[in-house]
Amino acid sequence: GNVARFSASDDPSMQIRMLQVIKEDIISAKSGVPARLRAALFGDVTLEQLATMAGREDVDDEASTSGRVARDAREVLCELFTNPAHGLCPERSGAAPKKCQSIVRLLQKLRPMDCEAHLTILLRACETHPALAMMYLPNAKYALEPRLSAHWLAATGLIGRVCVAAAADASASSAAARADGAALVVGESEGLAYVKAVIPPGLTKHTL
């Protein structure tokens, strides 16, 4: 999983070649690489290197080499985090296998408040697979104490979108439970995740 160690500090031309190999020879539907092997190639270190590349400021400057690197890295991460064929993300709603932990660890290291590419990656993953949103919320760290600022509004808006995605996962789980005849309190799981992520930092002594 450390095949791309230190790749974020490589020359941009080398990074483009590496990303091209990933897109065309590893994660392409025609590659023939088994999902388990694909997942093994993208360990924590490799995902962090890709996130660093995706977070370059000139991601929208497609005329520059580094801009192309940022765009391709963002596309690779979005593909890895949304397509179950690559062995990293859930195969169905309500499922959160152990293999998803590497995605969640990476999502928690992103800078969605400062980087548009990281915001896109986070929301794409959470909204495509609500189980990831459920796993992300409990350890989400944002300054949510009520204050009149653009940053606070953006943070609460982001958490709100992730919570909506998490609620979709809980709804799917409750539907499956009803189909199996099991008892489940609707809203319990997403409510706990929301409380852990939002209520403690929001209810300061001053607020109370």
Key words describing this protein structure:
mainly alpha
Write the layout of secondary structure elements.
Layout: H1 12-26, H2 35-41, H3 44-54, H4 65-82, H5 101-107, H6 116-128, H7 130-136, H8 150-180, H9 188-197, H10 199-202
Helix pairs in contact: 1-4, 3-4, 3-5, 4-6, 6-7, 6-8, 7-8, 8-9
Describe the structure.
The protein has 208 residues and is mainly α. It contains ten helices and no strands. Helix 4 packs parallel to helix 6 (116-128), helix 6 (116-128) packs across helix 7 and helix 8 runs antiparallel to helix 9. The longest helix is centred in the last third of the chain and has 31 residues, at 150-180.
Question: Can I get a quick summary?
Answer:
With 208 residues, the protein is mainly alpha-helical.
The radius of gyration over CA amounts to 18 Å
The end-to-end distance, rounded to whole angstroms, is: 47 Å
For the largest beta-sheet, the strand count, sense and barrel status come to:
none
Query: In terms of per-residue confidence, which ranges show pLDDT below 50 for 5 or more consecutive residues?
Result: 173-178, 183-187
Q: Structural class per helix/strand content?
A: mainly alpha
The DSSP helix count reads 10
Q: What percentage of residues falls in helices of 4 or more residues?
A: 55-70%
Q: What general outline do the C-alpha atoms trace?
A: globular
Number of strands: 0
Instruction: Give me the strand/helix succession.
Output: HHHHHHHHHH
- Proportion of β residues? under 5%
